[in-house]
Design brief:
Layout (H helix, E strand, L loop, with lengths): L13 E4 L5 H11 L3 E6 L14 E3 L5 E4 H4 L5 E5 L5 H13 L2 E4 L13 H7 L4 E6 L14 H7 L24 H24 L3 E6 H7 L3 H9 L16 E6 L2 E6 L3 H10 L4 H4 L6 H6 L1 H12 L4 H10 L3 E4 L3 H4 L3 H5 L3 E5 L5 E5 L23 H8 L14
Parallel strand pairs: 1-2, 1-6, 2-5, 6-7, 7-8
Antiparallel strand pairs: 3-4, 9-10, 10-11, 12-13
């Protein structure tokens, strides 16, 4: 349960979210979970595209269909205001909101907001301290900056698909994307982190700035050790299925009734692994005594260990290896994830209720802050749900006649 009495790290921060789909909304939700007042600006004609990205759909209390479940993944703790900023009045209103914002997040093509006067230069003139975050596929500069960038495309161009999937020549070989839009999510996390860094700098200097976040840049940054292998040793990684390029054994074995992941990170763990599986002599063989040797003899070792595990029940393998201090576990489907007792104990599912009694469920903010924990103050908003409320709150000290409500 969320402690609504606890302080929130970003309380009082105003964020204007002009983004759609996943990367931008995820960045904005991250700030919202930590206390920011995030206002999501949506086109009155249908709103964020992901509201329609179903099935499956969430349900209203009466059982009728609501928005796609996808939309709920990255839009909680926000307020929705419907504004058509392709019109002069709409663009003027968004500029007024931007003049009050600490952070603005957008994911239009480079230059796409210029014609509405909503680009960084225009907003900076109104609000010099604005932290203006632009999310695109390829960035604001470079020969590809004009291209549209989708997660699937970036997984391919950014090298991720070249190291994901079964090796050439094996059954089912070929490049494979990850099962969730990780490039979007990486970029969302980098955007939120960069915005917080920019806010810290503004706190010291009073100076705002423009943040240019690209899916391709983010994906390449997340190649980590795989890019390091190429950049420092000119070893170009390839697809290895479930194997690890630098650690053995670190793979999936099939037990009699399911699959088991074994992640043996060092030589001492390997000794404990072989003892737990009643084959301690394997650890004494020169071909397996060190991790470097095991990498060279990976196939022979995996065959030996695989034959042993295949004669055991999955839970038996996990029990023996856990007792020996060797990292291991099952491969859960998504339903099994949320019935896992540890996942439940960590509170990784949250349920939120709307005023009509309908429920929206989602995953929790993963970091546990001891003093200023994430809070779940509001479920994902309905389109335009907070039009009047946002204008009242953000312009409470101004004459009502100066601000046109999008309800009119």
């Amino acid at each position: 349960m969320t402690n609504h009495e606890a302080p929130m790290a970003l309380a009082g921060l105003k964020v204007l979210d002009l983004s759609r789909i996943l990367a931008g909304p995820y960045a904005a939700q991250t700030l919202a979970d930590l206390g920011a007042d995030v206002v999501k600006v949506e086109n009155p004609d249908g709103g964020d595209d992901t509201r329609k990205w179903g099935p499956p759909f969430t349900q209203n209390a009466d059982g009728s269909r609501d928005d796609a479940a996808y939309f709920s993944a990255c839009n909680r703790n926000k307020r929705s205001i419907a504004i058509d900023f392709s019109t002069k009045d709409g663009a003027d209103l968004v500029r007024k909101l931007a003049s009050k914002a600490d952070v603005l997040i957008e994911n239009f093509k480079p230059g796409g907001l210029l014609k509405y006067g909503l680009d960084y230069a225009s907003i900076k003139r109104l609000n010099p301290g604005i932290i203006y975050c632009s999310i695109t596929g390829f960035g604001q500069t470079g020969p590809y900056s004009h291209r549209s960038g989708y997660d699937f495309l970036i997984q391919g161009m950014g090298g991720l698909m070249s190291i994901t999937g079964q090796p050439d020549g094996s059954p089912g070989s070929g490049p494979m994307k990850v099962g969730v839009a990780v490039c979007d999510l990486f970029t969302g996390m980098f955007t939120a982190n960069a915005a917080l860094a920019a806010l810290a700098y503004r706190h010291k200097t009073g100076q705002g700035q423009h943040i240019d976040c690209a899916l391709l840049d983010s994906q390449i940054a997340m190649l980590a050790n795989q890019s390091a292998n190429w950049l420092n040793a000119e070893v170009c990684p390839g697809r290895m299925g479930n194997n690890h390029p630098s650690v053995v054994p670190y793979t999936v074995y099939q037990a009699k009734d399911g699959f088991v992941i074994v992640a043996c990170g060092n030589d001492k763990q390997f000794v404990r692994l072989t003892a737990a599986l009643s084959v301690p002599s394997l650890a004494d063989e020169v071909d397996f005594a060190t991790n470097e040797a095991r990498i060279k003899n990976r196939n022979r070792l995996d065959t030996a260990l695989g034959s042993i595990v295949s004669m055991m029940d999955r839970d038996e393998v996990i029990s023996k290896l856990e007792a020996a201090g060797v990292s291991c576990g099952p491969i859960n489907n998504i339903a099994e994830v949320f019935t896992d007792p540890h996942v439940q104990a960590r509170g990784l599912r949250i349920d939120q209720w709307r005023d009509d009694g309908s429920k929206i469920s989602n995953t929790a903010f993963p970091a546990k802050l001891s003093v200023t924990p994430a809070q779940y103050r509001a479920p994902p908003p309905r389109l335009g749900e907070h039009n009047k409320q946002v204008l009242r709150d953000w312009f409470e000290n101004e004459c009502n006649g100066e601000v046109s409500s999008p309800d009119k």
